[in-house]
Amino acid sequence: MWHGFEGxxxxxxxxxxxxxxxxxxxxxxxxxxxxxxxxxxxxxxRPGGWQNVDLPSADDAPGWFQGRLPGDWFGDLEVTAxxxxxxxxxxxxxxxxxxxxxxxxxxxRFRAETRDTRIEIxxxxxxxxxxxxxxxxxxxxxxxxxxxxxxxxMTRLRQSERQVLDTLVDxxxxxxxxxxxxxxxxxxxxxxxxxxADLRTAMxxxxxxxxxxxxx
Length: 216
Prior knowledge:
alpha+beta; 2 domains; disordered N terminus
């Protein structure tokens, strides 16, 4: 679960804009997270989906970032992507400290010291994969995303579905229908990890069959 990187409406918290550490690059984005492989970066599922056949594949993004990043930055690396965004989240290589404030300071120091290099790497990755790059770091119990893409999603809901959102607003769980919908999506994601992982695996197999085509 992410901590401390978005405000209540999905925007990044803090004084910097969402593109402050990404550098220039195309705005295309995301592919869902998949299981973590032993001894290497985490991978993810299908990068572009059936509606984005022109989007460059990001299947090799975990390996690319592992090879491109300076070796002394992270002890462990997690790279996830979807059609809009690639998130690079690393565990800082130093031994964790017991004090939370010290851990937060360590993450803040890493962010400041590596900003220029991260902008440079992000520009290269965005040119390669056609997606924005967001950065984050983990140290002890502290996990922070420095930047994050918030993407609007349009949908039509029937009255019974709107009533669910209105109930969440009336109960004070959310302040608006859009925030209630975001809350519901996050809740499903937290409690349906196994089912979503199986679904993504099944979609990957379908993609492979589509790519192979029939033998004539």
